[in-house]
Amino acid sequence: MAPMSLPLSSLLNHWHSLQRANMFCFALQGLRHRALRSPLWKRNFGAGSYGVGQLLSHQPTGRKYAASVCSSSSDGQDMTERLWSVYNETKKQTKDLIPVISANSVNPDTIFANNEMSLRDIEIYGFDYDYTLAFYSSHLHTLIFNIARDILITNHRYPEGLRKYEYIPNFAVRGLHYDVQKALLMKIDAFHYIQLGTVYRGLHPVSDEEVIAMYEGSHVPLEIMSDFYGKSSHGHTMKQFMDIFSLPEMTLLSCVNDFFMRHNIDYEPVHLYKDVKEAIRDVHVKGIMYRAVEADIGKYICYGEQSHAVLKKLSEQGKKMFLITNSPFDFVDRGMNYIVGKDWRDLFDVVIVQADKPSFFNDRRKPFRRVTDRGALLWDRIHRLEKGQIYKQGNLYEFLRLTGWRGSKVLYFGDHIYSDLADLTLKHGWRTGAIIPELRKEIKIMNTEQYVHMMTWLQALTGLIEQMQVHRDPASQAVVGEWIKERETKDIFNAQFGSLFRTYHNPTYFSRRLSRFADIYMASISCLLDYDFQHTFFPRRTPLQHESPFWPEHSTHCFRFACLSESLYV
């Protein structure tokens, strides 16, 4: 259940756990922003000569403190021992507090907010179909990979030996970039820096030294990054894979690259990329995937009952609903019959198929066309969008004119941050909700004691490094260097590319775009079931880098824990 739907007693327990966790988190952040005092300061502080307000407003003097940590010793060995003593004591304090922090786990059914939004203001709900209302099993990715691989062999005359390659379910993650000219798959952060250690040629990692040599560093210039929709076009050599359907495509690219390298076959990476792209497109456009899913729909579609419950709840509340999808009518009709029932069209005020998003949101030239139940296209001009009818193509401007559904009273859900959400929030002022199925797995990992321990220690270690880096003698620098190496987080999310949302310490490029184009995001549409329609979503108030990490409501707890954290350094 979402936090707001918990019983009062559970909420109080949750709040107390949150306060205890915040005490430690703020203290760790304080290590990076506060002056670390001498024993004399501690005695004065303990005697009450410093109030909470003075503590919060005091400016950092970390360099002066760090310079004096080992001032009593001039010997390098004593300096090293002192630094390791501080390290060990910090690690002990961190370990002791893990049970408290672990009690404050994240609910995977929570709806997370990037921007404040109230459901009270939403009158119309819109949905994509694939990976929004219909969730697919892993069998679908295997199907797409196998069909596209066979198309490469049959239609593009690729080597027969490629048939030995099977789909690797946990190889890639969404949001990766692919350098079309260099045939490299990689993860890039929000500042256009490549995360070293996540660059793959074929199925094998490329050394950091080789990556730095190829890119003259690890930064990717704006002019070669993917375009606005993540595509490699108009001089952009990078392609960003933002669609969940793109996981088989990334894996196929990597497998074919691997085959060519293993057999010392000279090939043009640009041709390979285009051929794989065309093969994947054929799987969709020629209807091969659609027919396979329709033939065994129970094998490929899951979570149907949850989507049905959401649609039913919205209908009971008198909300208007519409569906805009790029999938064809027969495929959507078969899937919605399975998920909702034969009367599924009664729930929607407007249904649009083969919309050709994102062009649907920008191209004013394509008119709507009505589709019969048998799939026949009618030629009459559309003067209104009628409930129970099916429409093909069209464009958003005509949609707005015919429905009058404008602005922030509309909330649209989709899984593709660019094709589904970007234009709606930037150009039309609709509210947007991103469906990120990967959240469930990542939150499950985040709630483990291993992850909590790793991240809590990472914060504490970062504070140590920041304070102690001013010691320039070789012995101290060697110690700090060991700490810096330890600071690199382990790949506990995905063995090759790590988390969808973070590089080692920065948000990923995917995460940056998510925060910009989605007002809210969640693991599945079913998360709506835990909230009433008066609920307001608030983004978490986190301090900017130049702001104090101590907020007034936590001042008492921060004051107490500040005393504890000081004891590590005096």
TrEMBL record:
Extract the SUPFAM superfamilies matched here.
HAD-like
Keyword line: Hydrolase, Magnesium, Metal-binding
Active site at which residues? 128, 130
Give the matching Gene3D superfamilies: HAD superfamily/HAD-like (3.40.50.1000)
- One term of GO molecular function: 5'-nucleotidase activity
Q: Which residues bind Mg(2+)?
A: 128, 415
Q: Name one Pfam family in it.
A: 5_nucleotid
The UniProt annotation places GMP binding at: 130
As cofactor, the record names:
Mg(2+)
Regarding protein family, the annotation reads: Belongs to the 5'(3')-deoxyribonucleotidase family.
PANTHER family in the record, alphabetically? 5'-NUCLEOTIDASE DOMAIN-CONTAINING, 5'-NUCLEOTIDASE DOMAIN-CONTAINING PROTEIN 3
Q: What is this protein called?
A: 5'-nucleotidase domain containing 3
Natural source organism: Anabas testudineus (Climbing perch)
